[in-house]
Amino acid sequence: MNFQEQLNDIQSKSVNFPPSNILLSQKVYSDLVLAKKWKNVEYKPVNGLEICVFLANEPELSTPSIHKLIILPIFQDTEQLSLKRISNIFEVLSTTQVIDTPIEKFTIAIYSTDSTIVYYHISKGLIKATQRNK
């Protein structure tokens, strides 16, 4: 499939998702493929999150990892990432079996209103920092 067909396929696989999430998925896919020049970017709809996630290997690695990155698009202005929300994301990704192996980390693609997209890896086991009493 060519690039435009891929975007249309993302839209057809996301038909029951909010329109803003479909557009967000397409923007992140475009960034990965066109701007970052990643190859073999797969996408899977995740009903529990109402968005498509992307599966890809980081191209900078000299040997591709057998563990693909799971990339989850989110809006900077509308999504709040608490530890509870991150835990819920891990649970949804694990129960939908996005990949065949246990999920130990995922990558969030945070889309800003100025069209900037930043990527952060989130590892399982993230815990809240404790405060010391002075």
Automatic annotation (TrEMBL):
UniProt entry tagged with the keyword rRNA-binding: no
Pfam family, one: Sen15
Keywords per UniProt: tRNA processing
Domain of life: Eukaryota
Cellular compartments per GO CC: nucleus
Residue ranges annotated for the tRNA-splicing endonuclease subunit Sen15 domain, each copy included: 28-131
GO biological processes: tRNA splicing, via endonucleolytic cleavage and ligation
Recorded GO MF terms: nucleic acid binding
Gene3D superfamilies per UniProt: 3.40.1350.10
Family statement: Belongs to the SEN15 family.
Protein name from the UniProt record: tRNA-splicing endonuclease subunit Sen15 domain-containing protein
Protein species of origin: Mucor saturninus
